[in-house]
Amino acid sequence: MYDRIKDKVIIITGASSGIGEATARRLAAEGANVVVGARREDRLKAIADSVTGAEVLFQATDVTKPEQVESLVKLAMDRFGRVDAIFNNAGIMPTANLSELHRDEWQQMLDINIMGVLNGIAAVLPIMKEQKSGHILTTDSVAGHVVYPGSAVYCGTKFAVRAIMEGLRQEERESNIRSTIISPGLVSTELYQTIADKEFGEQLRQASEIPGVGLSADDIADAVAYAVSTPDTVAVSEVLIRPTQQV
Ligand code: NDP
Fold first, then answer.
1. Which is nearest to 184 in space by CA: 214, 205, 207?
2. Is the Cβ–Cβ distance between 183 and 140 less than 8 Å?
3. What is the pTM of this model?
4. Digits of tens for pLDDT over the chain (247 positions)?
5. Residue 61 has what DSSP assignment?
6. Atom from ligand 1 closest to the CA of residue 16
7. Range of 33's domain?
8. Is 247 part of a structural domain of the chain?
9. Potential cystine with 227: which of 3, 146, 236, 240 (Cβ 3.0-4.6 Å)?
10. Which residues, 6+ apart, have CB-to-CB distance to 77 below 8 Å?
């Protein structure tokens, strides 16, 4: 348990499953007020209904729509009057070789993985500048450091997000607004369902469930909780977390 998380107001996107859901549950268990968004409202409601001892608000949110992300932030402001942190976590990974020309998937990855993060930053930055405090966390990936065949566009989005977050850190370091990049390796979640090649997706899913080959979403939630728990004089710029056996 971390003392400094209690009563913080924390917004999480992509919170209907996987890393976002685990983080919402973890931060709520630490006593935070959590506001969760994703497209599947029924999944968000189930999370809110099952959490006891902390307030969890939810709203259907598509991170590619700036007005929906702003509305999620407004939900937090209307109820709590401030936003201490946002975790920009929504993302998809429909991997395929470039030669397959999956143009629609390329566009979706740019829209969700990059613009979704920028929409989150844009929705909270004016508020955090006014508050003179805030913490912006974003799920990146080991794929933001290393390029894998079949994942060129996905890796491109994660390289871009790391650049954006590092730029944010540099620009806002004197505004008391902290930035943290969370970069997981293979994690056992529903992410592999977005891969068109079902056989490859299933292989990844099975590998992700082997301890030491894949991490659990709770492992990543631990890292987010640590970053959020640090005092505002400490900037945890990046947490890179691999399962032990990952190259
Ligand atoms: P999940 O598929 O379980 O979670 C993805 C989340 O993103 C879901 O809640 C989904 O909710 C949400 N999402 C997708 N599109 C949108 C959208 N347009 N608007 C709002 N929410 C959206 O996978 P993970 O938990 O693994 O993924 C979370 C993040 O972790 C992603 O950014 C991913 O790239 C990153 N990551 C994952 C790794 C892994 O191995 N699993 C490794 C490294 C990074 P809904 O469909 O309801 O909108």
1. 214
2. yes
3. 0.98
4. 888 999 999 999 999 999 999 999 999 999 999 999 999 999 999 999 999 989 999 999 999 999 999 999 999 999 999 999 999 999 999 999 999 999 999 999 999 999 999 999 999 999 999 999 999 999 999 999 999 999 999 999 999 999 999 999 999 999 999 999 999 999 999 999 989 889 999 999 999 999 999 999 999 999 999 999 999 999 999 999 999 999 9
5. -
6. 9
7. 3-241
8. no
9. 236
10. 83, 127
Token pair for 219: 């492992």
d(CA 110, CA 104): 10
CB of 35 sitting under 6 A from ligand 1:
no
Q: Is the CB of 138 under 6 A from ligand 1?
A: no
**Total number of domains in the chain:** 1
Kindly state if the Cβ of 90 falls inside 6 Å of ligand 1. yes
| Angstrom distance (rounded) from CA 126 to CA 57 | 22
Give the SS3 label for residue 237.
coil
| Residue 105 neighbours by CB under 8 Å, 6+ apart | 94, 96, 153, 196
CATH of the domain at 99: 3.40.50.720
Contacts of 17 (CB under 8 A, 6+ apart): 38, 40, 43, 189, 190
Mark whether 148 is an active-site residue: no
Residue 103 counted as domain residue = yes
Question: Predicted ipTM?
Answer: 0.99
